Amino acid sequence: MTWKISGQYMETCNCTLLCPCIWSNLAATPTEGSCKAAVALRVDKGSKDGVALDGTKFVVMILSSGPMGSGNMTVGLIVDAAASDAQVEAIAAIATGAAGGPMAALAPLVGKVAGIERRPITFEHSGATWSVRAGDLLDQSCEALPSMVDASQPITIDNVGHPVNTKLALAKATRSVMNVFGIQWDAGKAGGTRNGHFASFSWAG
Questions:
Q1: pTM to 2 decimals?
Q2: CATH class for domain 3-204?
């Protein structure tokens, strides 16, 4: 059966602005040598195989020891504790690319699937700020970089090879703390110099 989900996404990573994965098409070495990223998604509408996914939230955690395009990435999944077992199964298939869709393109680059953790997830948006928290495993927020043309709108980058959307808003990570699947990162006071993005998304498979 086909599936479709749509909603909002935000992420932070440990690279300095702008993450070189974006402009190098995954060929550049991350600014810290390894990339640690938390790609968070909130499904506003969607379903898979008859399982409604409206309101579900999940985070794809990524660790790349070098250029992402070189492969051997570690990927793990955090799913909202409020999700049912059927919803977790559906989200896992979508997030790993097993069910096709955008994440399937990344699957050949994954060397290890670290598993699934379930925690209460909050996904919030206020003005130019986006934030996601997943229990004791993740606490991140980012703030849009305002456009000189219209300060109420973020600067965006288009035609990028990102699985969530080809058009992303640019943002600075104001908070980025990760501690899961062996991925440990705390931006601390350097948060304002680290990379962030947000966008709407629409996936199907």
A1: 0.95
A2: mainly beta
